[in-house]
């Protein structure tokens, strides 16, 4: 197998991991919306649950990437966390049409996503 095929295989794998992560995110956010509707959760509780969803999903993506990588698992997990965060920011910027509504906690979310992805890679 040539370098081009190996590179293409890695890109396809990362794409599949990110797609799985965002499908899982969508499912968990739908569950959270149902819980919000059913039980009238407070804004603080919903915010904490959203952060928990980010952590759980990037951990799972890092775990999946680490199992497949075999070597340098923590780097693959970190890559999954950073890629998840990058897509999250891009979508947020598109939806908000600029930087004015982007939260001040985005740096914290970056470290949570990157750290939990790396932890998932190390655990695998």
Note down, in words, how this protein is organized.
The chain has helices spanning 3-39, 43-69, 73-96, 106-123. The protein has one domain. Helix 2 crosses helix 3 (73-96), helix 2 (43-69) runs parallel beside helix 4 (106-123) and helix 3 (73-96) runs antiparallel to helix 4 (106-123). With 124 residues, the chain is mostly helical.
In short:
The protein is an all-alpha fold. It has one domain (3-123).
Poorly predicted ranges:
none
| Number of spatially distinct domains | 1
The helix count comes to 4
Major sheet summary line: none
Indicate the proportion of strand residues.
under 5%
Helical residue percent band: over 70%
What would you call the shape? globular
Sheet/helix structural class: mainly alpha
First-to-last CA distance: 26 Å
Strand tally is 0
- Give average pLDDT, whole number: 90
Radius of gyration: 16 Å
Q: H/E series, N to C? A: HHHH
Keywords for this structure?
mainly alpha; 0% strand; 124 residues; 85% helix
């Amino acid at each position: 197998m040539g370098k081009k095929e190996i590179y293409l295989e890695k890109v396809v794998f990362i794409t599949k991991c990110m797609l799985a992560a965002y499908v899982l995110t969508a499912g968990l956010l739908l569950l959270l919306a149902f819980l919000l509707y059913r039980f009238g959760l407070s804004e603080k509780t919903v915010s904490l649950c959203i952060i928990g969803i980010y952590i759980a999903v990037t951990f799972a993506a890092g775990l999946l990437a680490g199992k497949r990588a075999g070597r340098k698992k923590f780097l693959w997990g970190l890559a999954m966390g950073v890629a998840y965060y990058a897509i999250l920011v891009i979508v947020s910027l598109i939806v908000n049409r600029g930087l004015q509504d982007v939260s001040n906690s985005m740096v914290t979310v970056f470290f949570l996503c990157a750290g939990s992805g790396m932890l998932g890679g190390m655990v695998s």
